[in-house]
Amino acid sequence: MRRFLFAALCLLGLQPILAQTNANPPASRSQNAPLVFLDCDFCDVSYIRRQIPFVNWVRDREDAIVHVLITRSRTAAGGREYLLDFIGLKAREGTGQSLPYVSPPSYTNDEVREGMTGILKIGLLPFLDLPVLSRMRVDFAGAQDTDSPLGPEVDRWDSWVFEIEASGYLEKETQRTEVSLDGGVTADRVTEQWRIRNYLDLDYDEDRFEASGVTSRSSSESWSHRSVVTRSLGPHLSAGISLRAWSATYDNVDFGLRIAPAVEYSYWPYDMDQKASLTVGYYVGQRRLDYAERTVYGERKETRFNQTLDVDLRLNQPWGSVRASLEGSHYFHDMQRYRVELYNRLSVRLFRGLSLRVEGGVDRINDQLSLAAGEASLEEILLRRRELATDYEVWGQIGFSYTFGSIYNNVVNNRL
Hints:
Blueprint: H1 2-11, H2 15-19, E1 35-39, H3 45-51, E2 56-57, E3 66-74, E4 80-88, E5 96-103, H4 109-124, H5 130-133, E6 160-172, E7 176-190, E8 194-211, E9 214-232, E10 237-248, E11 253-266, E12 276-291, E13 301-317, E14 320-331, E15 338-351, E16 354-365, H6 378-382, E17 392-402
Parallel strand pairs: 1-2, 1-3
Antiparallel strand pairs: 3-4, 4-5, 6-7, 7-8, 8-9, 9-10, 10-11, 11-12, 12-13, 13-14, 14-15, 15-16, 16-17
């Protein structure tokens, strides 16, 4: 009977608790090492734990004396700039620093995580006590070209970065075949004063069904080209112009063209770190639309002027992150043809072990000028081949997570 009970406890996952009764702390727990909480949703956490065994990684910020917050942003060359914030807590409150790490666009994921982990080790040194520091050593990898440690002085590409991507998807069954193809080309040039972005995207989707010897086929295709040129007007202000040309069977647009000058104001300086951003953008421009089918308003082509105001807030803080945006637009020929879009995303640590995630959006829609006349077929509705009339869109999701138990998170075990 006792053996049966023990086996049942093992199946319930309670064997580790029984094994640790009256036992010493796990050997993987470093003595005299600081308690560190890693706040990074894109990092290779298992790799970092293996490379940095001289600290105690904890799963909750409330237990840590060091909070490491890592954020990232894209560089002009197409790489990534990572900002590592080391925030002292409890007895170390008020101490801390920020260290950057920049990865070139040619780096593999392994090279990126290796370089970022090296900066992470350096940032943790001030939080180590003497017993741990006495066991540390410092290595220096000398530069391959000591005469030019910062790279070549002349950029033969003149800051231009190009990227080509393509993908395909195929799923086949006895009576159904689905094919999806998409590709894109980007050409960007970013300097201190200018930001030039060009993007071309192509998409094709097709579904085939076979029933009673009859084959039915449904497809949709689209392409879109966008160019944006932005000029810096100071630490808080920028101006530019955007051009977009597109075609989409879903939107009933055979050819569309939009040209819109724009101005943007940033509450905080643009060169501030990635932890806070609040911008207000204003666009005014012209839209020319040639429709594949006559619209519900009887138009085959039209040219309209419209304006857009966009407010965007982004925060990445030790307590969590926030993204909120509000965008409103309308056509000048009819002020009742407007659209208002509100989007919110919140991730916050409420208290020890409990986190809240909320994301959602509310759109008020009254500007569907391109709606095709006539009733949509059942096929078009089910396969989403045609835009349907609506005056609103609401969506959202909410989630909680609560963890408890051992505060330590040092062990890495990737076995089955």
